[in-house]
## 1
Amino acid sequence: MSENFPPPGFIPTESAIPGIEVFIPTPPDSGPHQEIVDFKCPQCGATTAFSAADGGLTCTHCSYYEAPKKPIVGRAAEQFEFTVETMARAAQGWGTARKELSCQNCGATTSLPEDSLTVVCPFCGSNKVIQRQAAQDLLRPRFVLPFKITEADCARIARQWLGESWMLPSGLSDIATLGGFTGLYLPYWTFDADLQADWKAEVGHTKTERYYNNGEWKTRTVVEWRWESGRANLHIDDLLTPGSARLSQNLLHQIGNFDLSTLAPYEPAYLAGFQAKAYDIPLEAAWEVGRQAMREQARLACLSQTSTPQVRNFNMNLDYANESWRYVLLPVYVAHYTYAGKTYQALVNGQSGAIAGQRPVDWNKVWLAIAAILSPGVLLGLLGLMTAPLAGIGMVIGGVGFTLLIIGVVIAIAVYLKADRMDDL
């Protein structure tokens, strides 16, 4: 029997039971994986680099220019099912010879062009790095969103951003030592699915009722709870989930307004002159994150169907169908700048120019502003106490002071929380 196994058209696969061999149909041949290619100038032989301005290749030595060759597929980009066949057919590696930068400070691993002289980690700014040949054993990206914003655009955007808030130190945009922006393709997974959510909950209806007490009729407000149920159907399209945990998820969310309508099929040429990050969050783990995000969307859709917003004992059964995924690279610029001896990080969306990052807060300004906000209420309150012996006047002044103090406290808390978020991002 062993001479006839595996049968024609089948290959062995992993078995969950020791001693039992399992075979699956041989996946259809998807053709040879893309060969590793170099980007050499046909005019002078020097290295070329991708141009964020129009997507072409420009020689860094003789200025030879090659027009872009990029069909735009956008949201019509092919999607892939969660099947063994899909994973078996997936190409691997970057499709071009690249080096790998391994940071000894934060542990991040970044892919960069072979001729790159970079010795600084784009994630933490450390120069404690080791370069080696990039691995080619991970899934190859299927689609890419090309850079549209240039480094010069980033510098202008960053300086404007560093001077836009009164909470920041005066002249921060001029004082801060702003380093260069590193163009970095970040890995993302996109997920699609059809959801069917059946829900049931007790929904509260407020009503006023009259009751008789101590010889007179009175009114009171009560909540009457009634069971309600329903069904919500949702189609989730292109839910973006980061494929790396090396950058702040909060910052990525702030700049994450990517327009996927300009997605292009992945070509190694897009990486010319740029660094790239391979995914460290694999497909299965990213899908779990995506499922939780989808579940929350389904929950909100169900709650929107209730007749009132008062809900208790909520229960939801959720079914997923037609799940699919894509592995894409999205453009982000990363920069570090120093102020008062401390290093801060900023991210810029390489397509839209949206910026987010850490900014130092001038807490002296913040505390003075909070004091100015609270002082009218405090002063009027003290004046009301001093004029209390005067008939009625002290009560009026004190009441106005108390009202202003309450308003001031609310505004002061909002100012403090905004400053704290800005300082801690």
## 2
Amino acid sequence: MKNNDNTLVTSPRLATWQDYLALCKLKVVLMILITSMVGMYLASAQSFDIKLMFIANIAIGFAASAAAVINHVVDVNIDKKMQRTQWRPLVKQCISNKQALFFASVLAFSSMFLLLKYVNVLTALLTLVGFIGYAVIYTCFLKHKTPQNIVYGGFAGAIPPLLGWTSITNSIDLEPLLLTLIIFLWTPAHFWPLAIDRIEDYRLANVPMLPVVKGVDYTKTCVLIYTIATIFASLLPYFFHYSGEVYLYLVLALGLWFGYFAVQLKITVKHQLALKTFRISIYYLIALFLALLLDRLIVHW
């Protein structure tokens, strides 16, 4: 049923473990863990501490999940108004805000405990910075204040390969910073097509996403600019001699693929292309990091 403000209202029910998992945004966490694991592998040279890598990834996943849960809590009133988020557990009232915050606290404290006890202080501090950046700075402030929210808040989502690297080396080096730069530039090119596809949702919820404030055509131009910047940034590991020709050829092909859809998004009026570009961007980033991994494996062989 719907209430007077045209939002969906459902009868409360008992929470299940699936509801708590839904709060964690597992698809996003999986991408974070893929990039962090590649960072770990690149930092490990020819020796691997499987236990350390496992614990570090669990801790990073816990921190990312905790940030996602807080995002659900802060945005619950917005989620009630948006079609794509009306299924979320807090909207359906099967989990209360207090229960969600307690769950987030357990995840966050568990993450910090594991990192401090089994990994290192540097990774714990960087993970905490990323957590605060997404859960507090982006979710609570930037998202509702500026159409450049995803750009300013992008660092929080870009640091997983750096976290993976520091968990192994306990140091910050140029190679993981280049990977962080790639994700930082990729984030607007990835998210703004979704914002274009869901523009009416964001307009209804009064969230100042770029297409709502500046218009769809302007946003498409920005997507193209950030896509080109991402493609150029993706070449840096090769030019700084951190990867070889296998990576170069693969990333050039991936860049042409991603760039083609960004250009098509700009020049076409097909509504469904925005969502397709959003999905392509996910495959692109995963494939890019797998290309880094493959290149390093071939070198070691």
